């Protein structure tokens, strides 16, 4: 029941849609002493130097959204002509710009 309600297709009907208390009150969590759990300290506390880096990336590695490429933005707006549309690669990606007809 817990998993089914967490994975409910309708977002507003999902367990937890009305707050964390709804999840904590589920029968699965009967017996959990939430106040005691909140006061418990973690058995391991990692040292975090930078919130954006967890140590798995090289210090020189650039963090960026792979779906965003400023090249397409610049090509579209560079000359002030924003009537051009992107050429599609057939897989949802843009490969260039079509000139206006």
UniProtKB/TrEMBL annotation:
Name of the featured protein: non-specific serine/threonine protein kinase
Bias (Basic and acidic residues): 73-91
Organism: Florenciella parvula
Transmembrane segments: none
GO molecular function: ATP binding; protein serine/threonine kinase activity
An annotated GO BP: intracellular signal transduction
EC number: 2.7.11.1
Keyword Transferase carried by entry: yes
InterPro entries per UniProt: AGC-kinase_C, Ser_Thr_kinase_AGC
Residue ranges, annotated region (Disordered): 56-101
Enzyme class at the top of the EC tree: transferase
Domain AGC-kinase C-terminal residues, every copy: 30-101
Keywords (A to Z) from UniProt: ATP-binding, Kinase, Nucleotide-binding, Serine/threonine-protein kinase, Transferase
């Amino acid at each position: 029941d817990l998993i089914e309600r967490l994975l409910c297709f309708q977002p507003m009907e999902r367990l937890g849609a009305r707050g964390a208390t709804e999840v904590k009150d589920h029968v699965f969590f009967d017996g959990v002493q939430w106040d005691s759990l909140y006061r418990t300290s973690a058995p391991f506390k990692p040292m975090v130097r930078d919130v954006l880096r967890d140590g798995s990336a090289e210090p020189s590695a650039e963090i960026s959204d792979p779906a965003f490429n400023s090249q397409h933005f610049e090509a579209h707006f560079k000359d002030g002509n924003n009537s051009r549309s992107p050429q599609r690669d057939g897989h949802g990606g843009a490969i260039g710009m079509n000139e206006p007809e």
